[in-house]
């Protein structure tokens, strides 16, 4: 059984399955309509979203203006990973992203685990974005004097908590959602209807065609970039450089507190790889689009962070959900703040669209391999999209967005994504060499046998106090230190393997950076993550293990 858990698919078999999937679909399968500009804008559409319009505020509060270093560090980490994704996308130009890549290099069990983890990134991540979208949309309506009933714009737990807090503080509760909600038996009807409706509308767009999705995403990206440029051009005249002192008020530890929110801001660039079968020239365009989108987004994040922390002191951003609008409202420029709120709605919409495009294509690939029912692989004969998978994705996101608590943290999504990134970087090291003369993107080889050990020693020097404290107090060690100890052991093993086998530097650095970001995520989120993965393994052993195409072949 152990051998069957790690059965792998060859590159030739994956390409053949993709061709068979296209031939089985009436009209030739997915349409190849995306060029490098479309792919780049799709990456920007996914990345420039809730991160810059909401979570950037709390990250700035914890790290001060110095949080830009975390943006740069995260961008470098994502850059290493993007190069690894680019080589895979060039060598394996089919839908499926990290799931397909893991099937080639690590085997079926790892592929299933990654496919299950990607549901966290795309589906659960989209629930968070949809709830954020609802909040922004409601603010825009309020600015137009359109007032939706409070019980139709939030979830039950959030409404109840707000009501109890108001009662405790002896403040008015007459207009609050919990107080005004109609009763259905003993249950108060409190539902986040705007979040539900936007997911339904976006699912329809994703269902009717990639061309329509492409045009919608491109238009939304253009609008939000224009708004952000306006923010920068106006805000730069209101910068007070005294607000940049101290630059890192809570030192680097404070900067690292924003790991989850900052990394969540970058999640999505990898969704480009799920559209490989709809790219006109994936070998050439995929690598370029990933790098271009990361560079564009990093520049925007860094400049916007410097501007808003220059306009308003970092200490004012605690629990501010709309920091860009806040800084202009504080300077009595409410109209600009209102325009920013509209742009935030557009930005969140584009994120939902890209993720709703990505998830069905991963399921389509898993279905082709037999790990999911055949229905998930069916391509619509008219719209040339994975229709059934798209509808299922819509239900999985739309229904929970009605009632899931708006305080959902981004940590779970970040863990699932970083886990996928680690396996993609490691998988590149196991890829067979490309045949001579083939036009594929290849990572530049840099021998890591001396550089990685040197970096490991430097890391140990700067973290010597933490390492010493971990080993001295190992009997009463905190959970956070357990994660650090595991990271240290894995890093040592990867360093030794790199020195012995002369692994390429870029994928090794990608693995190490992602592993470090993972240990900065709170332990409570790891508990939920392992519970999620356990449920995924149950599904695999009840269905996927027995129905797999490779199982039938063997």
From TrEMBL:
Q: Name one GO molecular function term.
A: amino acid transmembrane transporter activity
Q: Which domain of life is it from?
A: Bacteria
Q: Does the keyword Transmembrane apply?
A: yes
- Report domain Cationic amino acid transporter C-terminal positions: 505-548
Compartments, record wording = Membrane
Keywords attached to this Swiss-Prot or TrEMBL record, sorted alphabetically, are: Membrane, Transmembrane, Transmembrane helix, Transport
Note the topology in the membrane: Multi-pass membrane protein
Tell me the InterPro entries matching this sequence.
AA/rel_permease1 (IPR002293), CAT_C (IPR029485)
- Membrane spanning residue stretches: 39-61, 67-88, 109-133, 189-209, 221-239, 289-312, 336-358, 383-403, 415-434, 446-464, 476-496, 525-546
Record's GO cellular component terms: membrane
Record protein name field: Amino acid permease
């Amino acid at each position: 059984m152990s051998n069957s858990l790690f059965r792998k698919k060859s590159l030739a078999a994956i390409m053949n399955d993709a061709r068979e999937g296209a031939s089985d679909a009436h009209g030739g399968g997915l349409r190849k309509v995306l060029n490098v500009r479309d792919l780049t804008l799709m990456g920007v559409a996914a990345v420039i979203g809730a991160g810059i319009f909401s979570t950037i505020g709390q990250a700035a509060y914890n790290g001060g203006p110095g949080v830009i270093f975390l943006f740069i560090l995260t961008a470098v980490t994502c850059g290493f990973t993007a190069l690894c994704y680019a080589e895979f996308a060039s060598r394996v130009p089919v839908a499926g992203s990290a799931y397909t890549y893991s099937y080639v290099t690590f085997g079926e069990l790892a592929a299933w685990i990654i496919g299950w983890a990607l549901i966290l990134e795309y589906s659960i991540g989209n629930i968070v974005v949809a709830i954020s979208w609802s909040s922004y949309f409601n603010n825009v309506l309020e600015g137009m004097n359109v007032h939706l009933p409070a019980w139709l714009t939030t979830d039950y737990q959030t409404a109840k908590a707000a009501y109890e807090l108001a009662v405790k503080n002896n403040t008015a509760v007459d207009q609050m959602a919990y107080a005004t909600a109609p009763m259905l038996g003993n249950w108060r009807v409190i539902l986040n209807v705007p979040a539900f409706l936007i997911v339904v509308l976006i699912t329809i767009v994703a269902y009717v065609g990639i061309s329509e999705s492409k045009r919608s995403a491109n238009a939304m990206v253009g609008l939000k970039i224009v708004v952000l440029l306006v923010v920068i051009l106006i805000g730069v005249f209101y910068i007070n450089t005294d607000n940049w002192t101290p630059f890192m008020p809570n030192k680097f530890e404070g900067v690292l507190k924003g790991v989850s929110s900052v990394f969540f801001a970058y999640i999505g660039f990898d969704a480009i790889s799920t559209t490989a079968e709809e790219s006109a020239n994936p070998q050439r365009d995929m690598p370029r689009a990933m790098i271009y989108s990361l560079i564009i987004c990093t520049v925007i994040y860094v400049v916007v962070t410097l501007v808003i922390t220059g306009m308003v002191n970092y200490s004012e951003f605690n629990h501010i959900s709309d920091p860009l609008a806040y800084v202009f409202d504080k300077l009595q420029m409410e109209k600009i703040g209102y325009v920013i709120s509209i742009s935030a709605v557009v930005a969140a919409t584009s994120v939902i669209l890209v993720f709703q495009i990505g998830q069905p294509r991963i399921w389509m690939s898993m279905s082709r391999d037999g790990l999911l029912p055949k229905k998930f692989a069916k391509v619509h004969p008219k719209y040339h999209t994975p229709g059934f998978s798209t509808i299922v994705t819509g239900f999985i996101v739309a229904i929970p967005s009605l009632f899931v608590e708006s305080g959902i943290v981004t940590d779970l999504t970040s863990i699932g994504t970083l886990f996928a990134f680690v396996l993609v970087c490691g998988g590149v090291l196991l890829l067979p060499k490309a045949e001579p003369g083939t036009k594929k993107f290849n990572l530049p080889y840099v021998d890591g046998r001396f550089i990685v050990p040197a970096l490991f020693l430097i890391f140990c020097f700067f973290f010597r106090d933490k390492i010493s404290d971990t080993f001295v107090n190992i009997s009463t060690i905190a959970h956070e230190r357990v994660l650090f100890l595991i990271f240290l052991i894995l890093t040592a093993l990867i360093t030794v393997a790199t020195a012995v086998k002369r692994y390429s530097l870029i994928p090794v650095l990608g693995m190490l950076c992602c592993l470090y970001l993972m240990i900065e995520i709170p332990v409570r989120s790891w508990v939920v993550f392992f519970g999620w993965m356990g449920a995924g393994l149950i599904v695999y052993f009840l269905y996927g293990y027995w129905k797999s195409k490779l199982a039938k072949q063997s």
